Automatic annotation (TrEMBL), chains A, B, C, D, E, F:
Biological-process GO terms, alphabetical: rRNA 3'-end processing; rRNA catabolic process; tRNA processing
Reactions the enzyme catalyzes: tRNA(n+1) + phosphate = tRNA(n) + a ribonucleoside 5'-diphosphate
Exoribonuclease phosphorolytic domain ranges (all copies): 14-144, 164-229
Protein EC: 2.7.7.56
MF annotations from Gene Ontology: 3'-5'-RNA exonuclease activity; tRNA binding; tRNA nucleotidyltransferase activity
UniProt-listed PANTHER family: EXOSOME COMPLEX COMPONENT, EXOSOME COMPLEX COMPONENT RRP41
Protein name: Ribonuclease PH
CDD domains assigned to the protein according to its UniProt record, in alphabetical order: RNase_PH_bact
Organism from which the protein derives: Microbacterium mitrae
Organism domain of life: Bacteria
Binding site for phosphate: R90, G128, T129, R130
Record key words, sorted: Nucleotidyltransferase, RNA-binding, rRNA processing, Transferase, tRNA processing, tRNA-binding
SUPFAM superfamilies: Ribonuclease PH domain 2-like, Ribosomal protein S5 domain 2-like
Length: 243, 243, 243, 243, 243, 243
């Protein structure tokens, strides 16, 4: 895209090294340790037969997500939210985003009256924790659905996941759009955007924020293109992992 | 834009009736009762000379916002967050959005070591509460800044607000992009988007979510165009009110 | 009562201007914006068919109230109780007072197994917020009961409200008993009393507190007389509004 | 007052057996175990040299109170407020009442920059816990003040307490005014009133509530007379204990 | 054991004066005011027919305990946990210990589907509050069980308590093992241990902590011997009280 | 010790496979991923120059620990404590235990006015999480101290850690003492004990609990011997890792 070389040697349109390690946890019905460079997120999917009371008898399942960060996942230690006795705004916002992203590709009727809770715990943070979480959570979710199918909680031939979903951050730094920002890039970005895109290339979520100067339509378009391309690479990575 | 007539008789690219009543509160340094149709939000700006401890001595001011809804602002009563003892994810998310939107047009150096807290309390909700809140909050903020200038807390000739900011919701209903969704439209929308745009037409925030089917780039573009046009109308309304 | 003229020009036995605006909210089954001078309280009554679990099957209804203040209802901003994560003593105390006042004039058997929650949110405070809240809440309650009757949840000819109820503050300032204290008077009062009186002139609640010097029986009697007269005026105002 | 004999054999104008045991706690600067019949309240006064930050340098002291009940002080067990994580409305209300009652008889200038916290913990409840608490708290407060004087924190000859204070409940049962209600009487009372009266016979607080039918002025007067007489007996008891 | 005489004149292997006053509370099904020297703990046992939902239908009962301290039980005042809005680690830990100790000697099948909650509230603290609480709680528990038997909730001839349980603290001070530490001794102890022992002399719980230097096996043995002997004396005291 | 072979093929006196991976986290001053068989705990040590306010100027440092479990570390998912808004008793108790264990081997004077917070987050649980946490935390602590020394916050030649510390669980199953219980063993154990032992073989903490039948002195001795031997093996493992 441009000749700029980033601090870690990447091209502007290049993802960091992405790894998706399935079956990381011995207990969860689906689990993944996903890394986007120095960002490491443990995603576990917990499958329960049955749904919350308000959904009983509607023939539909429920998928929800919780995001959290270990106190020393970051460069300086943050107090635990459990110790503070309340969950911060950022945590709430990201948990809600992950849940929406996953629900966009799931047929809750086909899931049946089952609940899947995805926990995304950031073990180490280096930018893009929410996008890594979504990307990994999709794989853990897929595994939990297969577990449910094997146990007979989900019909054998149903299509529960009708598409895949991945996410990536993009941003403008010194006027240049860049893909998958590391923490040192994130703090310098004038505009910061997260895009959540399905395997077929459709948008589930577009969240762009001007951190410095507001941005115009042309910049927005360049960021969206970059994000869609990055998500396509992540989709291939997910498919390969699940193969 | 199209020949479709909406439930309340509006064209697809038409705002609801918007009113911005300045000086609603006797106590606040800036205050506005803003309405977008049936949505009524009371925005008050509280000016304090001085900044939070972590900002002292940096020669910069601080602007923050809190959003809340009265229990019976909606069609059925919601329990108070104060009674539940914690603030929900949606409330946190919107408070953060309003704060970011306002900080995008303010020069905190020119504000000096002063703090302005904007409270946006929804008295009646009919869709678009966050966008009405941002649009009204800007006017309350402008008034609080003038108050601070008159009291001598802010330099006489400084430009504290270098642009204005407004926000509006857009969405796709039955395949048709529409501006400023009322509640009955909002629940039917396949895609829901909020755009925050400065007076000069630049984006501060773009938040689009597929509630039903994911959306493609062409739909996204149509929604953005609609939002930018709506915000321009709101900008004129704000300017007229402040004149 | 005396020749003293108060800061706002009132006689010692004179109420501030009182307005009761019915149907303020589009959603609530009963709603009132009540003002006692600069004090403005939004009272909404939410009607639900059914009662809390502990009352089920007893053939009786339930009426309760919650009082709160917007952060900038007062001269300086107060932190939100939702943000602090707990409700203060004063808020609890006033919520309980309003609930008791309303329950004193309602026949819960005639109400049937229905619940009415009255929310009293102070939009602007200038003394006497709890008494304005009770006075307005009665009107909102009456409207919600009529709504329930029209919907068939309450028997057509039953007498649910067997009396009306209103409240006013009285106090002694510089030795002189005065009716309906504004905030600047309230802070100067040696004795502060709230009386809650039914339409028939009977006491529901008498709460007198010596803020400065303790008071004697003669002073108490003068305050009570003043309060009863004030409540009679408010009763007429309520009746007129409901007519 | 009448020929009625109460369940426990008392006349209508008779207090239950009242005991005030000073120096109950080895650690507190003032402490009292007060009983009104089956109601037992442990009142401890904690003296600290210095005042809360907001009072520093104003040459005045601070007196505050906290009221609480052991889980099994009552006939059936109540969950601990510490376990529930919040303090109930009733607890807040009574804590505030006790604090106001004590501050009504103390000269905070004479107290100097010292803080006294009174804890009133109900060990066993049988009606009138708040009035027993006030009556006992006064004695504990007096002892803590003398302790402060001996330690040199309070000037030798100053008059810190310019009056004493006591409290008692009164109520109307079957149309008959009665003094110092036990629990079985309290639940049957049509009207329930607490009066807080100084040693000189002046009112500090009058809180009357119609639990059943609203009450008229004549009933109110009879209750007040009964309360004032009861408080005079308690004042003598306090004086005797402190002698 | 040694010729050392302690500050209060005791031998190293001597308990403080222990009193167990049964039936202290008028309301609880079992209640005891236990004192170990200056430590006074009120233990009440609340009997409820029925069990928590998760135990229903299993034919077993449930015994649990809660420990707390009045704010001025100690030499300086501690803030109430209810006011702080959360329970501290120490409180939790001791509550759990007391519950485990009591459950070790109860046959929950013989108890039947009944629940007993033991509240241990420290009225005055002078070291060893948790061990006094366990020792007293056993007696209150025994009384509550007899109450349940008399009311017909427990089978007439069943053996619900198959052993008794008591507890005592031991510690090493200046190299010398000592029994039942008072507060001034506790703060000086190099090693601090609590032993919970049944009437038959078996261990239920051994909790030893090096406060200063770590300890060796020989010291541990000497402490255990001392603790077992102390618990045997307490067992006799309990039996005598219950006789 | 006996011919019994355990479910996983171990001898009764054999530890599970123990791994201690240093430098697991890129951000923390010391970090270890420790595993005892299927139990995996991430221990991070956060070094701060300076101490909490109450320690300032005393020339001493502060070491504290926090323990937590990821929601799906266990076989079924547990709700997050941050979501529940409070920390459970078990979590508090273990956090306090880890802190005490580490403070037993550290010379806080030599540490100087520095604070080290150790976070022990259980990523996967299979019994013995608290003992694995202590064993790993010691290594993370040692690394953080060396970091502080290199940065010049700690004197070059001082001995901050005067001993090492490790911990292991022991228990009696079917009458047989066993070392380092896995979860399936833990739930079957009649007696459960955790021992915390220094590198020199001295006890820091002994916590034995009868889960089923109470235990006698002979059984206690056998458990202690087993625990001391297990901790000696862990000490060698720690030393090897730090070499």
């Amino acid at each position: 895209m441009s000749d700029i070389v980033r601090a870690d040697g990447r091209a502007t349109d290049q993802l960091r090294e992405v790894t998706i390690e399935r079956g990381w946890s011995a207990h969860a019905e689906g689990s993944v340790l996903v890394s986007f460079g120095g960002t490491k997120v443990l995603c576990t999917a917990s499958f329960t037969n049955g749904v919350p009371r308000w959904l009983v008898g509607k023939g539909k399942g429920w998928v929800t997500a919780e995001y959290a960060m270990l106190p020393r996942a970051t460069n300086t230690r943050n107090d635990r939210e459990a110790v503070k006795g309340k969950i911060g705004g950022r945590t709430h916002e990201i948990s809600r985003l992950i849940g929406r992203a996953l629900r966009a590709v799931i047929d809750t009727k086909a899931l049946g009256e089952n609940t899947i809770v995805i926990d995304c715990d950031v073990l180490q943070a280096d930018g893009g924790t929410r996008t890594a979480a979504i990307t990994g959570a999709y794989v853990a979710l897929a595994d939990a659905i297969e577990w449910g199918r094997e146990k007979g909680f989900i019909a054998k031939k149903s299509t529960v996941l009708f598409d895949s979903v991945a996410a990536v951050s993009v941003g403008i730094i010194d006027g240049e759009p860049m893909l998958d920002l590391a923490y040192v890039e994130d703090v310098r970005a004038e505009t910061d955007m997260n895009v959540v895109v399905t395997g077929r290339g459709l948008f589930v979520e577009v969240q762009g924020t001007a951190e410095g100067a507001p941005f115009d339509k042309r910049e927005l378009d360049r960021l969206l293109d970059l994000g869609v391309a990055g998500c396509a690479t992540l989709r291939d990575k997910q498919a390969e992992t699940l193969a």
